[in-house]
Amino acid sequence: MTTFPPSPSPADRTAHDGLPKAEFAFPGALRDQLVAAILDGSKTSTTGLVAGYEHEGEPLPRAGERSVVVDSEGRDVAVIEVTEVRIVALGEVDLAHAVDEGEGFTTVAQWRAGHEEFWHGAEMREAIGDAGFTVDDGTRVVLERFRLVADLRERPAAGPGEK
Questions:
Q1: What is the DSSP string of 14-62?
Q2: Structure letter (DSSP) for residue 137
Q3: H or E stretch at 97
Q4: Could you give the C-alpha distances from 5 to 54, 71, 93, 151, 152, in angstroms and in order?
Q5: Distances (CA, A) of 23 to 44, 73, 80, 138
Q6: Per-residue pLDDT tens for 15-68?
Q7: d(CA 129, CA 86)
């Protein structure tokens, strides 16, 4: 028997039209990996920089908000709902959060090294308009927990005996 995450009803497919987009990382291999982890349920948390929200003039996320996850091609692939938001110093990120990011990290040190590589990368520095941007233990980060509400991808019809 094959089972999938919740299939969207026709109403679900149109109900997400007015929701903001959730873009994980930048288009490319990392975004594809993160989106796949959201869709398979292994990614239930994410981390953003407070500085990134401030630079973009975007409000910080709040529990209960829903958004549409987009893949590297800009396609709507899922609806997620924020279940918890914490603002902490980078040095205070806990192991549960790091593991729940679904990227295979087993220690906070691994998680931090991976995130520092991303945050210190040229794309991120360009996105926040600071070629010398760097993080340290005191850098404020946004820790979000979320749940998958709907998988918006098209799936083949179930065969005999499948649901």
A1: HHTTTSPEE--SSTTHHHHHHHHHHHTT---EEEEEHHHHHHHTPPPP-
A2: T
A3: helix 95-100
A4: 34, 17, 29, 6, 10
A5: 15, 11, 12, 25
A6: 577 899 999 999 999 999 999 999 999 999 999 999 999 999 999 999 999 999
A7: 25
35: closest CA among 82, 87, 74, 84? 74
CB within 8 Å of 137: residues ≥ 6 apart: 89, 90, 91
For the chain, helix, strand, coil in percent to 5 are 30, 25, 45
Report DSSP state, residue 103: S
Tokens 């709907």 map to which residue? 150
Burial group, residue 101, by CB count within 10 angstroms (0-12, 13-18, 19+) = buried
Cβ 48 vs Cβ 93: under 8 Å: no
